[in-house]
Design goal:
Blueprint (H helix, E strand, L loop, with lengths): L4 E3 L3 E4 L2 E4 L4 H6 L8 E7 L5 E7 L7 E7 L1 E8 L10 E7 L5 E4 L3 E7 L4 E7 L8 E3 L22 H4 L24
Antiparallel strand pairs: 1-9, 2-3, 4-11, 5-10, 5-12, 6-9, 6-11, 7-8, 7-10
Length: 188
């Protein structure tokens, strides 16, 4: 099974609106996803074109993530940074929207980032370990060796000073082991 997965929770709609379960241990276990989440994060990006990433936490505080957009839309990216993986440095992406309710799951060993496609976009994501500043890491968003095809949103990308100084993948000595599951294409 592909380590990075798009998840589309079922929505129950009527004239009042809709309801959906964004996480169910039982439903996720049926997909082979048995992570235990310990922290929820929520970000607001006011302009379109905000890039956050490409981030990860290294062991012993590595994080699997379950990402969803709760307002607006994002182009969400996962990059394989598992040492020895035949898909090392390759990426997949999905468009996540508040209207669609899609989620992107990525296990540990993947760098994560996104660009906002609309103003006032909010993103929520669950993680499997607490934030640990000493284990915080990442690779530069526009690394030519990764070559993410970021969409043009009509404005120059906006990044934090920290994200502008992240190293290239070639300068990263990955502590993440390969688990035998190569990255494959995802829908979306």
């Amino acid at each position: 099974m592909n380590p990075v997965q798009i998840i589309r929770p079922r929505r129950f709609e009527d004239e009042r609106g809709w309801f959906m379960e964004t996480h169910s241990e039982r439903a996720f276990a049926a997909r082979g996803l048995t992570d235990h989440y310990v922290q929820d994060n929520h970000s607001l990006s006011r302009p379109a074109g905000v890039v956050r990433g490409l981030h990860f936490q290294v062991p012993p505080h590595a994080q699997a993530k379950l990402v969803r957009c709760v307002r607006g839309a994002i182009f969400d990216v996962a990059v394989d940074v598992r040492r020895g993986s035949p898909t090392y440095g390759q990426w997949v992406a999905a468009r996540l929207t508040a209207a669609g309710g899609e989620q992107l799951y990525m296990p540990t060993g993947f760098a994560h980032g996104f660009i906002t496609l609309e103003p006032d976009t909010e993103v929520c994501y669950k993680v499997t370990d607490f934030y640990a500043p000493a284990q915080d890491g990442g690779v530069i968003w526009n690394d030519p060796d990764i070559a993410v095809a970021w969409p043009d949103v009509g404005v120059a990308p906006s990044l934090s000073p920290k994200d502008l100084t992240l190293p290239r993948l070639a300068d990263f000595d990955s502590p993440f082991p390969y688990d035998g599951r190569p990255l494959g294409p995802i829908e979306g």
